[in-house]
Amino acid sequence: MEPDDKCRMIIDVLIKYGEVNITKIARLTGLHYHIVAKKLQELQAKGVVEERRFGRLRLFRLKGRLWGEK
Fold this sequence. Notes:
Blueprint: H1 3-17, E1 20-21, H2 22-29, H3 33-45, E2 49-54, E3 57-62
Antiparallel strand pairs: 1-3, 2-3
């Protein structure tokens, strides 16, 4: 699997579910938690994804979407 395929899988989950935490993304994609976390950092650096924190909980969504929007 190419690295871009992993990012595409993550983006597909965010499109379908709106805002999602890393654990759920990992479960839905079948990717390891640490790989998902790394790819989300890359997507954030590119301006594709944004993060919102509630204590230790980290929610991710596609940039430009309203929080809570599916």
